[in-house]
Structure formats: structure tokens, C-alpha cells
Design a protein that fits this description.
This protein is an alpha+beta fold and about 220 residues long. It has helices spanning about 55-65, 130-145, 160-175, 180-190, and strands at about 10-20, 25-35, 40-45, 45-50, 75-80, 90-100, 115-120, 190-200, 205-210. Helices cover about 25% and strands about 30% of the residues. The N and C termini lie far apart (about 50 Å). About 25% of the residues are buried.
Length: about 220
Amino acid sequence: MQYCYSYPHPAVTTDIVIFSIREQKLKLLLVKRAREPFADSWALPGGFVGIDEDLEACALRELEEETGVAGVYLEQLHTCGSPRRDPRERVISVAYYSLIPSDRLNVRSASDAKAVAWFTLDSLPTMAFDHAEIVSMAHQRLVAKLDYSTIAFQFMPEEFTLSELQTVYEIILGGPLDKRNFRKRVLALERIEKTGKLRRNGNHRPACLYRLKFPGKVEIIK
């Protein structure tokens, strides 16, 4: 027997904030909407959750359908529930964010989006729905988690130097860090290891290459 609820059922969507470091800047991946509402406006990748679909599974599916990006680390960010956030109906959205090394990306627009493009945080276009608020929230979370987690490591390629890792932190924070203190702190975490290889950049001394001990895993630092 089908049960009739006394309350109306809101729709549920997922939205995904994708960050990457490209051209020495922190950038955000957006899609151009193909349909109303907000047709031709830029928005976060995302869409409606199927009735039998897990939330994260929906986020991963929509991300791949709209951008071609698959198999990424996602972290739940916030539940957005303003009654007027979507002009179509009452829609609650569960927002996620992800950090992807630029060398692992081959972004393409797919069936649900007219175009896909990268934007710096200081030059974002007008965005659909409440997506500008979600982006701001994701950036604040990313900056805060630098102090107590290994989240910045998600931006790194398979092999990297300590200078390249420091640059990632500086780009996210928007300012320089003391080289000696940074290296001491990062090495004390014991989350990276030497590969045994060196890399020479220009006329500088060859630098040791490192790799993550636990790739794809974000750990809390006490």
C-alpha cells in the first residue's frame, strides 16, 4: 500500500565546486547552462538526485555528464535550503567541493552544458541560483582547512618539489610563507616521501622530488 505523506516533497540536487591551480592561480570550473532557468548563465556543475540515487553518486555522475571529469575526491560542503533559491520549485541542494591537479584534467563540455571554462576567483561571471554564495563558502572552507588538514596535497601531481607545494599554499592563502618554517612543518607531518629523483629548474640546484604517501586521502592534522 502506498503511503500518502501530509507534507509536500521538495526536490534535491547536488552542486559541485571544482578547484584547480592553473597558470599559478586558483581557478574554478563552471559550466554554461543549456536550459532555463538561467539559460546561457554560468553555474556550478550539478543536477537533480534520482529517487534511488546516493547523494555523492549523483554529484559524481552530474560532474562527469557536464564536464567529462570523473573519479575525483569530493567533500561535502553545505546544504542549501533557501525556499526561493530555485524559481522552478522548492529545491534543496547539497553542495560538494573538490580539488584536482591540473595535470589530471581533460575537461570537456558534455550533453548537459553548452560550455565549460575555468575562472579565477577575482573574475567570476554572474552566476545562476545561489552558486556565488556556495563558491564563497567553499573558498573559505579551503583556506581554513589548510591549518588543520592535508587538503592542499590534493592539488599536487604524482611527483613534486617542496617549492611547488609551498607555491600551492601561497596561491590559496594569497601571500608568501617563510620557506624554512613551511618545510619544517610539512616534513614533520610525515605524509610525503622522497622519490629518489631530482629535478632541475633553470640554473638552480636540483631539487628533490616527493610523492604523497596516501594519495587521494585528506587527513586531519592535530
